[in-house]
Amino acid sequence: MKTEPINGKFELMALPFTANALEPAISAETLSFHHGKHLQTYVNNLNAALSGSKFEGLTLEEIVMKADGGILNNAGQILNHNLYFSQFKPYCEQNEPVGELAAAIEREFGTFQEFQQQFQVGGATLFGSGWVWLAADAQGKLHIVQEPNAGNPIRRGLKPILTFDVWEHAYYLDYQNRRVDHLVQLWHILDWQELNHRYTE
Ligand code: MN
Questions:
Q1: What is the CATH number of the domain that holds 57?
Q2: Against a cut of 0.70, is the pTM above it?
Q3: Ligand 1 center–CA 82 separation, angstroms
Q4: Is 14 a member of any domain?
């Protein structure tokens, strides 16, 4: 996925599901603030900062690789949230990995359940704001990576596959301080077809 600016500007991504489709994992209210306010602010801030800068016209991924400071932080948050929101589908009780990604998870972690456990620990133990990622190296080997703030594993040479946002804005309206209660619900809304596509593309 390469995200190009349109006439030098980035746009707020459209959500691929309805506002209440992710309930009860993520409420319509949280989704509305998270997408419509927080992500929109990162988009506005990046567009303002890019104007007249040497990064104007680059893809989001190129900006994340090359920039630092405020431009890196805002571009990183847009890239991260685009990957985050586009990995979800309506809530379902039984939801498991598919395809080559399912095989790679079993190869690396033994079982899906063991992977879930390790990934949740990654999210739970990240101090402060940030993201926990499942990312693949050039050989297709999977890694769980913690990134503080706006970090994205492309800056480590890894391909981002799956991510949980552990900034408080992602869950505070629904779960207050109970980050882990939120994380365990996210397994019910992952679109594993999309995640497998990211892994194999
Ligand atoms: Mn967020």
A1: 1.10.287.990
A2: yes
A3: 10
A4: no
Name the residue range of residue 70's domain: 28-85
CATH number at residue 148: 3.55.40.20
Between the CA of 110 and the centroid of ligand 1 the distance, in Å, is 30
CB 25 within 8 A of CB 85: no
Distance (Å) from CA 173 to ligand 1 centroid: 13
CA 111 to ligand 1 centroid distance, Å: 28
Same domain, 76 and 119: no
Residues 117 and 74 in one domain: no
* Structure confidence by residue, pLDDT tens digits, 9-50: 999 999 999 999 999 999 999 999 999 999 999 999 999 999
Largest CA distance in the chain: 50
**47 and 138 co-located in one domain:** no
Nearest-angstrom CA–CA distance, 150 and 65: 12
CA distance 121 to 199: 22
Ligand 1 centroid distance, CA of 38 (Å): 7
105 CA → ligand 1 middle, Å: 25
SS3 88: strand
Q: How far is the CA of 123 from the centre of ligand 1 (A)?
A: 13
- For residue 170, how far is its CA from the centre of ligand 1 (angstroms)? 5
Which token pair is 14? 């459209």
